[in-house]
Amino acid sequence: GCDALRYYLCTDCALGTDLRFDETKMAATWNYINKIWNASRFVLMNIEDLKEYNFDNLTNEDKWILTKYENIVKSSIKHMDKYEFNIFGSETYSFIYDDFCSNYIEFAKFNSDSTTTKSVLCYVLTGILKMLHPFMPFVTEEIYSMLPIKETESIMISDYPKYDKKFIFNDEEVLVNSKIEFIKAFRNVKLENSIPKEAKVLINTDDEIIIRMLKLQDVRIDSELEIKAYNVSVDNYKAIIYYEKEETEEDIALKEKQIADLKASIERRKKLLSNENYVNKAPANIVEADRLKLEEEKKKLEELLK
């Protein structure tokens, strides 16, 4: 499409350098636009009844996205003025894809009846459309035309977003960043260890967003259990996931094979690194990679032998 091509050509390389055309990157740009379209559809469905902005009851999550948004507006103005479209593209992609679509919209689902949250969704989406309009004129115009609150009939004659320091909340930004990292870490631990959703959890916070996003309403406990525990800790947030899988004969056989393979690999790597001829003649980065791999394998073996 026109928008995908235009955005790709404008933002894929630095000013004054040649561009190697890549259809794979073009497809990635189309996926990005599709993500923006789907996120916008969700926002529009939830703000249909919004008549005017109301920022009276901002949650920490509202303050977090507003801070992120104002900072990206400030940064984008600087890069647009210098024609640094590639840096603009990289920074706005991170904000839109990760901060707005992946995180804030997920938070907003638990507070979608709040007029303040609806106002924040509309305000930030409007700014995103304006920032992207020079690069994606068609899709941004289409979405803008469906907004319940807009300053002009067409986005083409609206003003570029302006930085507003009244929406900067640094303390809340740090707090919610920690919350996001904790949620990611918790999910990763469960995924890596194939822990089912019914596993019991001891957690040191009653934060509603964390409890609901991690679906802990029915699995929280008040005291420690005498079974295998997995610790998750990010800043002030701490949790212990209790889960002990019953080992089948297949599990035991697989574990024994992993132990045997690791022991053999560790022995091979030790011999290699004790060979002065290899250490002195091989590229330093290769030797260092072997050393790091050896330490990694030792830790894995230690875990398996527990």
Main pleated sheet: 3 strands, antiparallel
Q: Which descriptor suits the 3D outline?
A: globular
Strand residue content: 5-15%
Provide the succession of SSEs.
HHHHHHHEHEEHHH
Question: How would you state the average pLDDT, rounded?
Answer: 92
| Class derived from helix and strand content | mainly alpha
Radius of gyration: 25 Å
How are strands sequenced across the largest beta sheet?
A: 1-3-2
Distance, first to last CA: 56 Å
Unreliable stretches (pLDDT < 50, length at least 5) are none
Number of strands: 3
Helix content: 55-70%
Treating each run of at least 4 consecutive H or I residues as one helix, how many helices? Answer: 11
Task: Give me some keywords for this one.
306 residues; mainly alpha; 3-stranded antiparallel sheet; 62% helix; globular
Can you characterise this structure?
By secondary structure, this protein is mainly alpha-helical. The protein has eleven helices and three strands; from the N terminus they run H-H-H-H-H-H-H-E-H-E-E-H-H-H. The chain has helices at about 1-10, 25-45, 60-80, 85-110, 115-130, 135-145, 170-190, 210-215, 250-275, 275-280, 285-305, and strands at about 200-205, 230-235, 235-240. It has a three-stranded antiparallel beta sheet, covered by helices on one side. Helix 3 packs antiparallel against helix 4. The protein is globular and about 70 Å long. The mean pLDDT is about 90.
